[in-house]
UniProtKB/TrEMBL annotation:
It comes from the Bacteria. Gene3D superfamilies: F1F0 ATP synthase subunit C. This is ATP synthase subunit c. It is a multi-pass membrane protein. GO terms for molecular function: lipid binding; proton-transporting ATP synthase activity, rotational mechanism. The record marks D60 as: Reversibly protonated during proton transport. InterPro entries: ATP_synth_csu_bac/chlpt (IPR005953), ATP_synth_F0_csu (IPR000454), ATP_synth_F0_csu_DDCD_BS (IPR020537), ATP_synth_F0_csu_sf (IPR038662), ATPase_proteolipid_c-like_dom (IPR002379), F/V-ATP_Csub_sf (IPR035921).
Amino acid sequence: MEIVLGLKYIAVALLIGLGALGTAIGFGTLGGKFLESAARQPELAPQLQVKMFIVAGLIDAIAMIGVGIAMVLLFVM
């Protein structure tokens, strides 16, 4: 039983850790591409900013779903 419990803790840690890593990489790429596109066409910066924040919310939602699944694994099962 201890092995199953230990593996569950490892699974939760990997789920949260890799979700955070993926989110950080996604935000870094998103911010870099936004700055590149705003530097190339400054007149489109407000439109691009709105789209950037929408995508940022979706990227963050993926991480929060992963945290939710991890909490279910940790406390319910």
